Amino acid sequence: MRQIYTFYADAFWIALKSILEHKLRAFLTLLGVIIGVSAVVVVGASISGLNSYVTEKVSKVLGANHFMITRMASTSRLDDNEYERRNRRNKNVTWEEYEYIKVNCRTCTEVGAQNNSGADINQDGIEMPAVRILGVTANMSEIEDKTITEGRFLINEEVARSAKVCVLGTDLKEKFFPAQNPLGQNLKVNGIPLQIVGVEDKRGAMFGDSLDRNIYIPVTLHLQMFGRGNGVQVHGKSAERETLLAAIEDAQTTLRNKRKLLGSEEDTFGIVNTQEVGNQIDQFTAGIAAVVVPITLITLVVGGIVVMNIMLVSVTERTFEIGLRKALGATRKQILLQFLIESSLLCVTGGILGILLAVGVTQLITFFAEITMSVTIPYIVLAVVVSSVIGIVAGLYPAYKASKLDPIVALTKS
Q1: Contacts of 191 (CB under 8 A, 6+ apart)
Q2: In 154-210, beta strands by DSSP E
Q3: Any idea which of 126-130, 372-376, 379-383, 399-403 has the lowest mean pLDDT?
Q4: Which of 21, 80, 94, 194 lies 20 to 30 Å from 388, alpha-carbon distance?
Q5: Can you give the pLDDT at residue 97?
Q6: In whole angstroms, what is the distance from residue 275 CA to residue 364 CA?
Q7: Cα separation, 315 vs 403, whole angstroms
Q8: Maximal C-alpha separation, the chain
């Protein structure tokens, strides 16, 4: 056991000494491995960051453990024929149906309603076109996990009496009240003055559209201002992620019973499940990874070819050393392992340096692009394992060639 340990320790130090004797050559050899490993890790961090970014944006729009029922809704793209079929079959969700679901959905912790419209806001010579006017129930703050930075959200009493109050998104606050407290002031929507009671926290943009260009008003007031022609959206929430599907099924069954749909009949409404949206994001990023990661691994293969070339040069340079060691009793296996250890050490060192470079690059991207990129363990493991395997594979032929040298012939080439 001691002899085995001594051999590997000696082999390691010989390999390290050989590398340090040719620092520039070793560094240039490592560049391919460093770039390859850092590329794999940065791509992994980018995919993870993209996934987290989109999930965070979706969560800010939809909230967690949240589902929506409306006339036309789908988490995937519908072809034209399917869309037309559903458009003919589905019916608007009415206020009465919303109230029925609210009373009878036992698994739902919250059931709310929302209606959407758009309007151009013009006040005191300041204009903001295409503002989203969202009529909501008071519990939409809990359903969509909203954060209010100034004032408060709407309350049940205001919804019940169709109070002329509103909560602003930050874009409207900055546009119409840039240097003053908006609470208690009025903002006109379609000529109706609404008293501002709160300001929502900044949510940023998603796919180029601002999430802060919203005005929230009581849904009852919204129905009076914009009519009931398009029905309402019903929004539900479960206490935990694990019970979301049960809550959706409960609400779905409740609305089917209300509409007297038989078991074999299709739903005459659409459902959006935030979990399905999250799953689609995961599938999308997994698809990107499946295409991009193998491409970046090619750079590691190129790095391995460079390592193999340098190792062949090293075998040629050290022919006399190899012959001398064999003449003193070194076996073919020991010579083989010596050069394998050297090539593996090169590639593992390149892998570690590549990871350090990747960490620095991801930090810079996070700082300048404001997208959190996290270096994930699976991609680090993948990069190190692949670089180590490439080091072994790249060293096999040079090591085999070294082990086959005839000691007498090798010693004559001094």
Answers
A1: none
A2: 165-168, 186-189, 192-200, 205-206, 209-210
A3: 399-403
A4: 21
A5: 92
A6: 32
A7: 10
A8: 104
Residue 38 Cα distances to 53, 87, 118, angstroms: 22, 50, 47
Output phi, psi for 249, to 5 deg.
-65, -40
First and final CA of the chain: distance in angstroms?
35
- Model confidence at 200, in pLDDT bands (50, 70, 90)? very high
Q: Which two tokens stand for residue 241?
A: 């992620």
DSSP 318-378: THHHHHHHHHTT--HHHHHHHHHHHHHHHHHHHHHHHHHHHHHHHHHHHHHH-------HH
Total count of residues recorded for the chain: 414
pLDDT at 185 over 70: yes
Q: Label residue 98 by pLDDT band (50, 70, 90).
A: very high
The neighbour count for residue 257, using CB atoms within 10 Å, is 11
Helix (H) / strand (E) containing 305: helix 274-317
Q: Is residue 294 within 8 Å of residue 39, measured between CB atoms?
A: no
Answer whether 137's CB lies under 8 Å from 167's CB. no
- Paired sense of beta strands 214-218 and 126-136, if any: parallel
Half-sphere exposure of 404 (CA within 13 A, CB side): 7
Distance of CA 181 to the CA centre of its chain: 36
For a pLDDT cut of 70, what percent of the chain falls above it? 80
Average pLDDT over residues 290-318: 74
pLDDT of residue 234: 92
Residue whose pair of structure tokens reads 């064999």 in the numeric block = 326
How far apart CA 156 and CA 37 sit, in angstroms, is: 56
Q: Look at residue 181 and give its three-state secondary structure.
A: coil
